# Entry
Amino acid sequence: MSVYNILEVANTHGGSKEYLLALIEQFKEFATDHGMKFQPLKADEIATKSFSAYPIYEKLHFTENEWREILAKAAETKEIWIDVFDLYGIRIIEQNLELVTGIKLQASVLQNQIVLEALAKLNLTNKLLIINISAYSLEEIQAFIQTFTSRLNPKELLLEVGFQAYPTELQDSGISKLQTLKEYFSNRIVFADHIAGTHEDARWLPVMATMLGADFIEKHIMHDSLPTEYDHFSSMTVDNYRLYLEAQKRYANLTKKSFINQREIEYLEKTIQIPLTSKQLAAGSLVSENQDLVFKRSGETGMNANQIKKLQQNLHVLAVAKAPETTFQPEDFKKATIGTVIACRLKSTRLTSKALLKIGELTSVEYCIKNCLKLEQVNHTILATSTVEQDAPLENYTYRSDVKFFRGHPDDVIQRYLGVAEKYNLDVIIRVTADMPFVSNEILQILLKSHFETGADYTVGKDAAVGTNLEIINVAALKYVKQFFPNADYSEYMTWYFQNNAEHFKLNFVELPSELVRDYRLTLDFQEDLEMFNLVEKHFQETKQPFALKTLFNFLDQNPEVAKLNHNIQQKYKSDPELIATLNKVTKITELAS
# Structure
């Protein structure tokens, strides 16, 4: 049975280039169906100084020029494979891409999004990719296959079995996984053998693996006369390697071992690159896997990325501020307090006191509040107006007794929102204005789910009808804005303070399903809007249908003459070039703004 053999150099060289070149020379006779694999790494990129092997990683480092020389020498007789642990390894691949046949990612690296993102920038269409799946379940393996295939687009993705335990015991070799993997996946299999190099099993076990379906065998090798400081436990000398190539099958009963064994779980727990903060994170913020994390091996314990993601999917935010390069603990999170804050004033000049004008039997502000109360997963609904006496009557229009009423800054809407957040201990705000009577829970649930899953600061839907979109904003992000704009004079256009500062905030623009997207105008500013809204409400009353945005759109789709009543009205912030230019200038975070 033909099998491709990968000669694993690992760390036997102990940081000596001379050793490594001598090892390449000693194994040059093995060429056909052979590759040689190397591990370029950099100590401060693969681990923190608290990790026990950090000093060893420092010793093992070769410069980029040294790696170029080493790989060129090996490529004279063999195909080149690279183990990737960190961004340094990716730089070596990029600089020697024409020499590289394949890339391997160990089990401890598969959740490192930083490495994955960097690899995705390389052209790997003619490269083989090995992912080691030790200690992962079948469901997790399937997810990894989909992720790495779609994002990296390799020529072929291979699944590897086996882990290093200095040396690995025979019963933990993972050979029992091979038949299961063959049954569940169509990918070719790599068997990484880490049995003690001097034992006869080191020759026979990989042969058995090939009989059970392994297509590639990875063997550790060492020089037969030079001192070998590291990785010698499972490494073979050239004479033993020759014997391995002549060996035949053995140990059929090993295929009955369990899929995941306890020791490989312990190995993964000890070596897995766990998420650490990449920068200072404020209390009340969310964690973005792509923007807020680095992945390293660490001597500290902490949550993994999936655990963090699950907490956030359950609407949790950071309960405490996090310093850079720290791990995450469950107690660092708390359930978010979410509030719908409805901004409203009675100073409208285009449509006088529009908040008190009737849509059906309710004032427009009460109509808005009524629909806001249908928003799920919200702790508080607050009508927020100013301290100006003109706005005092709004306290009589909260629709229901459990709706909170708040009076704050008359002009600085951000300050008013922060006042609401402080009073009700809000972590996340759903921003609504009272001229939006048709607030939709359907849209909110889509945005809320995406906001927490992505770890955003600010979330908004794309292409929603005017007056139906919602904005979800972390209070921590609002506080950050306030640091730069003590007097946010244009904060009634709050959107601009976020969307105009993408380098400062994690912005999340969500694609909405087509049934929730239309080019209708559903905001109240003009008499034509009011006339159109009353026709909509009349339809709901006559048909006795509860409000739903899809139902509203269906009515307007079937009654275009109603939709045309206000269709030609343009929003000022979209049509006034002077206002747009002003907003672009005054809402931009700059050194001067601070």
Observations:
- The mean pLDDT is 92.
- The first strand starts at residue 4 and ends at 8.
- The CA atoms of residues 376 and 441 lie 7 Å apart.
- Residues 527-543 form the longest helix (17 residues).
